[in-house]
Design goal:
With 235 residues, the chain is an all-alpha fold. The protein has 9 helices and no strands. The radius of gyration is 20 Å and the shape is globular. Pfam families: Transgly.
Amino acid sequence: MKLPKILNRLLIAVSISIIALIGYYGWELYAAYHYTVDSVIPLENKTSYPLTTSSLSVSQHDALLKIEDPDFYHHTGIDLSTPGAGITTITPGLVKKIYFDRFTPGIGKIKQTLIARFVLDPLMPKEMQLRRFINTVYLGPNARGFEQAANYYFNRPFEEISEDQYLALLAMIIAPETFNIEKHPERNQTRVARIKQVISGDYQPKGLFDLYYGRLDDRTQQNLPKLSYFESYYR
């Protein structure tokens, strides 16, 4: 007789928890929607960035998407199927910067994914997303966006950097400290070489989280984002 009562209480507790979670995330989406409509999009329309999407050459544009978000123009904010894409593609990356003062895994990741899928991607056009990304992406403590990074690392405007210099910046996006051009030039160049293989089609990512395109030594693995490196791909 006791077992049914325990199960019944457990069912009630689980039901209440589910309802509470639905209510919480529902409110978060509602708040994010109005914040986006009232503040994010109007401010984005007024912001004057140093670069536009047309500032990228065709090869630069293609390389960026090939490495950071291969299905960017076709998915609806998130992509959990394209090999080499990982979970945090361009849209969720923007969500993390726009909607969070402090980001924590778990509940924060769920919120990030839901906002990307149901708020930011429907409301912010893809070209606007990409423009914001190339102008604000974190590339070390002294560089936000490709223009500032080109000036800081190469002492020249973005339009004057070489393709290899551009790929060196692209190589930093996934972990700016680990693959920093100044601090770890050898790591950066190794990743550039691997990126070139992906772009040329000589290397096909082995799964969703094959973000590094090969084995990394123990020192390189230090301080990488959690759950971003799986050595099992390369055994």
